[in-house]
Amino acid sequence: MIADKNPKRTSLETLGEFGLIDHLTKNFQLQQQSTVMGIGDDAAVLDFKEKKAILSTDLLIEGVHFDLSYVPLKHLGYKAVVVNLSDVYAMNATATQITVSIAASNRFPLQALEELYEGIALACKKYNVDLIGGDTTSSTKGLLISITAIGEAETKNITYRSGAKPNDLLVVSGDLGGAYMGLQVLEREKEVFKVNPNNQPDLEPYSYIIERQLKPEARVDIANLLQQLEVTPTAMIDISDGLSSEILHLCKKSQVGCNLFENKIPLDPTVITACEEFKIDSTMIALSGGEDYELLFTVDQKDFEKIKGNPNLSIIGFMTDASEGANLVTRGDSKIPLTAQGWNSFKTETDS
Ligand code: ADP
Ligand code: MG
User: Fold this and answer.
1) Model confidence at 6, in pLDDT bands (50, 70, 90)?
2) How far apart, in whole angstroms, are the C-alpha atoms of residue 224 and residue 211?
3) Which stretches does DSSP call E strand in 110-249?
């Protein structure tokens, strides 16, 4: 669907490995105090003083995690960074550096990698992180990207998945299901395009959800917001796989149960409209859609007044004793056990 906008194709071999690394990284500036040595030596050097270092890594493979027929490389670079930073933010930490490793086949000219690095640069700037290294190699097929995000946090602020207690409130930032519905629209347009390449799709009505899919943002703002509200989350996780699966992670690690209220799940009107159009249940999408990169966390009951009514946050349930299990309380007031895929409609409360 994406036409080759870049008629100029420079083969990667003409630069050689060192020329390529140099070319791709020369415009990156270092911003973080903790970066002592960035790109250019055998290893980077970081100094977090009395703080703890936080580290998370991801591997993305063409055809498995992304499809270049509708994902522009610039967006891919941006998203690859953002999803890693999201993991650092989910520890209630500040992201400070990234490393980027790539393997590209000879199908990719220099201009393609330039585009990828434009997206990476944009994300580094927006989230104030330094690119401090990586690795570059060739692949026999397709593109592979591995990003490691590094961050810092004071020991007392680090939030694990394991700290939730029964009666804690379950809170989520933003709204859910958009990224998945955006993908549905893109997949549909890809099929339409295969049949009729001259078809110009009107994607305007879907711009919010397509953006949620192609250009997600990480919730860098939530740690600050919570600090302002003087709320310390007891447990936290980012929503990469879907609400249901993340709730189950929190429950398992914290050894608690959960009641999630269907009517409290935040949905954007565009998501609701798209779900109607695709004849999919919007609750199902929020529970199992994934890739929203919102933060899901628990707070003590006493913080209810501080969280209540905040436009960035929705209280969607509360934690219970582990023996009660993790459940969805439906609009019809029935209790259904949550499963990693969403919920198990064949299981009733009594046999869970
Ligand atoms: P080595 O041979 O020791 O692995 P390289 O020649 O691969 O070193 O890398 C040289 C420098 O460039 C290192 O600082 C490395 O971290 C950095 N680097 C290599 N590839 C990339 C990349 N794709 N993006 C950013 N930095 C990179
Ligand atoms: Mg190397």
Assistant:
1) low
2) 24
3) 130-138, 143-153, 169-173, 235-238
pLDDT digits (tens, 9 = 90+) for 305-327: 999 999 999 999 999 999 999 99
Q: Is residue 262's pLDDT more than 60? A: yes
Q: Is the pLDDT of residue 240 over 80?
A: yes
Q: Which helix (H) or strand (E) holds 45?
A: strand 45-46
Task: Give one DSSP letter per residue of 279-319, joined into a string.
Answer: T--HHHHHHH------EEEEE-GGGHHHHTT-TTEEEEEEE
Q: What are phi and psi of 4, to 5 degrees?
A: -70, 95
Q: Residue 62: beta bridge partners?
A: 66
66: DSSP letter:
B
- The reported pTM is 0.91
Reference 121, options 11, 29, 43; nearest CA is 29
How large is the greatest C-alpha to C-alpha distance in the chain, in angstroms?
A: 67
Task: Give the environment of ion ligand 2: residues with CB less than 5 A.
Answer: 135
Residues with CB under 6 A from ligand 1: 21, 25, 39-42, 100-102, 131, 133-136
Pocket test for ligand 1, best of 17, 21, 113 (most atoms within 8 A of CB): 21
